[in-house]
Each structure stands twice: as C-alpha cells, then as structure tokens.
Amino acid sequence: MTDRPSIEIHPSSETITPPAPGDAPPAKPSTRTWLGVVSLALGATVIVMTEFIPVGFLPNVAADLNVTLGTAGLMVLVPGLSAAIAAPLVIVGAGRLDRRRLVVALGFSVFLSNAIAFVAPNFAVILLSRVFLGVAIGGFWAVVPSLGFRLSGPEAGPRATSVIVAGLSAGTVIGLPAGQFFGNLIGWRPTFAGVAGVALLTVIAQLAVLPRIPAVGRMTFTDLGRVFRVPLGRTILIAAGVATTGQFAASTFVTPFLLRNAHLGSDVVSVLFLGYGGAGIAGTLLGSAFVARNRIRAFASVAAAFGVALMVLPPLAGHPIIVGVLCVGWGVMWGVVVLALQTLMLTATPDAPEASSAMLITISQLAIAVGSALGGVLVDSAGLAFLFVISGIVAVASALFGLLARPAT
C-alpha cells in the first residue's frame, strides 16, 4: 500500500487512542469504568435494534394504518437517510461538548422516537419519530467508537471498543427477530413502547455510571473530506454502499417474503429470524480469522455468496427446509461482510479512524435508505420475488467493486 496517500487530520481533531491532557484514565480500569463501557454497548444495542425492529412487523403497520407495504418500508428509509446526514453534522457540530452529555442526549432521542411511534395517530407521525432516531444513530456512531479508549486507556482500549461494537452487532441481529416475535405477540405499538422503556433505562444507567468525558478537540468538514482522497478508501466506501443497498432492499421485506412466497407460518418465521440473528453473531465472531487472512478475498467471496443466496430464494421458496438453511447462511455471510468492511476501512485510513468511521457510517446509512426505498418501489411494482433477485445482483456487484481494491492491498 505504498501508493496510498496519507491523511493529515487537523491538529485539533479528536483522536481515538490518546486521552485528553490531564484526563488520562488509570492503567487498570475500575469496575465503574467497565460499567460505563457496558452502558455504551447497551446504548448501541437499543439504537440499532430500534432501527431494524419495524422490519419484523411491516405488514402489521401497513394493514393498521392503511398504507402499502412499500410505503411502510419508509420506516427503514427515513432513519437511514437521517443518520447519513446527521453523522458528519453531529461530529462537527458537537465541538467541545462533553461527550457524556452528548451520549445521554442521543439516547433520549431514541426514547423519544419510540414513544412517539407508540402513540402515533397516523403514518406521517411515525415517520417523524424515525427522524429523531436517525439523528441518534448518526451521532452515536460518529462519536462513541472512540470513547472505549477515552474511558479505559490504551491497554484496555481495544477490549472496551470491542464491547461497544458488540452492542452494534447485537442490535442488528436482535432487531428483526424481536420485531417479528413481539409484533405478533403483543402488537407493534406495545413493542415500540417496550423499546422506549428500555431506552429510558439505558439513559438513566449512563447518567449513573459514565464520568465526564471532555472533548479532546474539534473535527472539521475538511477532515472528513480527506477520507475520499484515499483511493482505497473510496473503493471500500463504494463497495460498502452497494453491498448495504442489496442487503437492505431484501431484508426490509423478508417478513412478507417468508409469509407470502415461502408460505411459512408466523411462528416458524419468528424461529427462523432467531436463527438468522444467531448466525449473524456467529459470522461476526468466527469470521475474524478468515478476514484476517485476506480482507479483500473475505469480503468479495462472502458478498458474492450472499448475493447468490438472495437470487435463489424465490425459485426455492416452495422448499421450507432449503429456505431456512439459506436464511441462516445469509445471516452468517452478512456478519462476515460487515466485519470485513470495517477492517478494510481502518486499513485504508489508519491515521484517521474517526473521520473514516464517520464516512463509513454516512455511506452505510445512506445505502440503507436507498436499499429500503429501492425495495419499496420494486415490491409495489414487480413483486417480492423480483425484488430478491435484483437485491442478489446488487450484492454480487458489490463483490466486484471490492475486488478493485486488491491492487491497493
């Protein structure tokens, strides 16, 4: 990677490893420090779970509020688009605001989003509630990843960061099956109310255990823009955007596909979603060795494989066992894809982790919005089977974009 230009971040920008002057954490983090780290991980879980939980009960919302299934998919598009805009704005606009206050404010936005959705009289109000969530998503993932090091110090920093990121993985894989299970068990409105309660408890916990976390410096829009000057970084961002578009075009509408096309019962679908979620966690944890051997090969091969799985789901929809195996395999492969993309982005810009993180968040969330919008258009105009085939083609295309990064690695 000798031809990769260096990113020279503004001297006042936040860094991920050094603590603020005069604010160095102890060499051995205390129990309260680890409780603070866990509270951030829990916050990550609740935020991401709130983003994806409506996927499990889209048909219920569409029926109750008299909107089409494609329109109901806007519940995934709106927070994704809002987060894409909010990530750079929050990391720049937060300036020198104490990070504890910022985290708590973002967590309260998650509570507010779920509470408004619970009492929403119509679909427009639900979409408004999802804007609050989008701001929380973008802001949280633009700021929080670096706090593991700030709280626990250089030695324990990697472990603390892994705990926080584990919250992201947990929220991603829990959200969809939880939405399906509780949406059918108690209804979608009480499900939103329950998540609102969990979000509020998380905020209270963060207030109790998080110390003051002074800002180290100030990030600028120029710092963020420099990420795009790195050729490998640009290629990875394109691959990430394309892969995420294919993923969420399909996953947003996986519930109606399994119910209508595969003719599975709602109880079976709930169990299958639990398998998908567990497979996603397994893919993230067990795929680390595969990704470490060859990051590009890991991303390209697994992205192509899950794309093929999406394409063959419609013609095999009449075989429940095969559908179940494909869905669980899909979960495993997506877990590896996410891990590979994160690792590749840090490799591309090791001297600018916060800036590259913000840009990856922006591109990924924008792709979630584009994917859910594309899925909504396709499902209303051409049907669920066609949607899954197109989503698979898009995923395979992301593998080809990923291979373009090979000369740089």
What's the short version?
About 75% of the residues lie in helices and about 0% in strands. It is an all-alpha fold and about 400 residues long.
Describe the structure.
By secondary structure, this protein is mainly alpha-helical. It starts with 30 loop residues before the first helix and ends in a 6-residue tail after the last helix. It contains 17 helices and no strands. Helices cover 77% and strands 0% of the residues. The chain folds into two domains: 28-219, Up-down Bundle (Growth Hormone, Chain: A); 220-409, Up-down Bundle (Growth Hormone, Chain: A), CATH 1.20.1250. The longest helix is centred in the middle third of the chain and has 39 residues, at 147-185. Residues 1-23 have low confidence and may be disordered.
Query: What is the CA-CA span between the terminal residues?
Result: 6 Å
| Strand residues, percent | under 5%
The major β-sheet equals: none
The CATH topology of the largest domain is: Growth Hormone, Chain: A
What series of H and E elements makes up the topology? Answer: HHHHHHHHHHHHHHHHH
Tally of strands: 0
Gross morphology is globular
In CATH, what is the class of the largest domain? Mainly Alpha
User: Helix tally?
Assistant: 17
Low-confidence stretches: 1-23
Task: State the CATH superfamily name of the largest domain.
Answer: MFS general substrate transporter like domains
Helix content: over 70%
Radius of gyration: 20 Å
Tally of distinct domains:
2
Label the structural class: mainly alpha
Integer average pLDDT = 82
